[in-house]
Write a structure and sequence with these properties.
Blueprint lengths: L4 E2 L10 H13 L9 H21 L6 E4 L2 H14 L5 E5 L4 H13 L3 E5 L20 E7 L12 H9 L4 E4 L11 H4 L3 E5 L10 E5 L14 H4 L7 H16 L1 H22 L3 E3 L10 E6 L4 H10 L2 E2 L15 H5 L4 H4 L2 E5 L6 H19 L1
Parallel strand pairs: 1-11, 3-4, 3-5, 5-6, 6-7
Antiparallel strand pairs: 2-8, 7-8, 9-10, 10-12
Helix pairs in contact: 1-8, 2-8, 3-4, 9-13
Length: about 375
């Protein structure tokens, strides 16, 4: 078997040893229910609130604005379905390339609650076209949702104008920051949105834990019924060790973000340059926009992406066609379609995503393997 090279970090990341150590400590020491009023319960509560304070400080939010959830999908559902419960049917503003967690929520509201979807266009690099807002009728608009850093292309959106548009009209704005947090600086205060989703496993934390940041004073009905945990927004006994692990992972990124960013961008660019040099017909999608430092979405025109993915797996290259949540779907990548790319480009697209653990040696080996396979498939 060839040496495995992991280039699928947008799907999930390896938990850091420090994160595992912190969680192991609290699985033992903070096993009590943080809602209990005895000494062990109070100790667990302190660990939970310390984690909340750490995250609030890094994300520039108030501790009261952080709701712990099971991950990015639940956070997004909690925000969008909650907004819908708090209002009458109307328009939902979004882009065609939203993550399925957002898109399927909106489609459910369209089907079951008589909301309607209003899609904002993006340019050929996947950037939101803000001039659309000038002529947009917002009289029946009920909410908006947009992805901050795209999970498939890595394109980072500038959201200031959209946030202002929504704020001036009293329209709640949800931002999917699942791929952004822990890769680039994200300030909840500066984004100006109503709600923001994130997930620990995207930045070397544990799976099964995420958060929804909700602007103070925002009314949001819970999706679930039960206890009064998380300020009555998310009932259920809080997973203290997982929350500690998420906070630890974010803290580690925050303390080393400059070095990590430089490392990831160097590895991403090495891979990009090497593949473009070896495969002249390759096309980098979103190359003209600001992108996450770790993400490369590249099309090998003339090659079927699904067949290529199988061959790359056999060669020990771990990567993907795009969002893992959409795996198994025969539908084309909607983010690339929305960018106006031709069919031969979007049907030959592969996503590679590095981490700060990826080595230059791994990148050079990956370039050799990928190039050899693509050349063989083109011949």
């Amino acid at each position: 078997m060839p040496t495995t090279i992991y280039l699928d970090n947008n799907a999930t990341t390896r938990p850091r040893p420090e994160v595992l150590e912190a969680m192991n400590e609290h699985w033992r020491a903070s096993f009590a229910n943080p809602g209990s009023h005895h000494a062990l319960g109070r100790s667990a509560r302190r660990a939970l609130e310390d984690a909340r304070e750490t995250m609030a400080s890094i994300l520039q939010a108030d501790t009261s604005e952080i709701i712990f959830t099971s991950g990015g999908t639940e956070s997004t559902n909690l925000a969008l379905l909650g907004f819908a419960q708090a209002t009458s049917p109307g328009g939902i503003l979004l882009t065609a390339g939203e993550h399925l967690a957002s898109l399927e929520c909106c489609r459910t509201l369209e089907r079951d609650r008589e909301f309607w979807l209003q899609f904002l266009d993006v340019d050929s690099n996947g950037r939101l076209q803000h001039d659309q807002l000038l002529n947009l009728d917002a009289s029946d608009l009920r909410m908006a949702t947009v992805i901050l850093a795209h999970n498939e292309t890595g394109v980072v959106q500038e959201l200031r104008l959209l946030a202002e548009f929504c704020r001036e009209r009293g329209v709640p704005l949800h931002v999917d920051a699942v791929q952004a947090v822990g890769k680039i600086p994200v300030s909840f205060a500066e984004l100006g949105c109503t709600a923001m989703s994130l997930a620990a496993h995207k930045f070397h934390g544990p799976r099964g834990i995420g958060a929804l940041l909700l602007r103070r004073g925002t009314k949001l009905p819970p999706l679930l019924r039960g206890g009064h945990q998380e300020s009555e927004h998310r009932p259920g006994t809080e997973p203290v060790a997982l929350a500690v692990g998420m906070a630890k992972a974010l803290e580690l990124w925050h303390g080393d973000q400059t070095t990590r960013t430089q490392h990831m961008q160097q590895r991403r660019d090495e891979l990009q340059v090497g593949l473009l040099k070896s495969i002249p017909h390759a096309v980098v999608n979103g190359i003209g926009a600001e992108r996450l430092p770790n993400t490369l979405n590249i099309s090998f025109v003339g090659v079927d992406a699904e067949a290529l993915l199988v061959n790359l797996d056999l060669a020990g290259i771990c990567c993907s066609l795009g969002s893992t949540c959409a795996s198994g779907s025969t539908m084309p990548n909607q983010a690339l379609v929305a960018m106006g790319l031709s069919e031969d480009v979007y049907r030959s697209a592969i996503r590679f995503s590095v981490s700060f653990e990826t080595t230059s040696e791994e990148i050079q080996l990956a370039i050799e393997r990928i190039s050899r396979i693509v050349e063989r498939m083109l011949s």
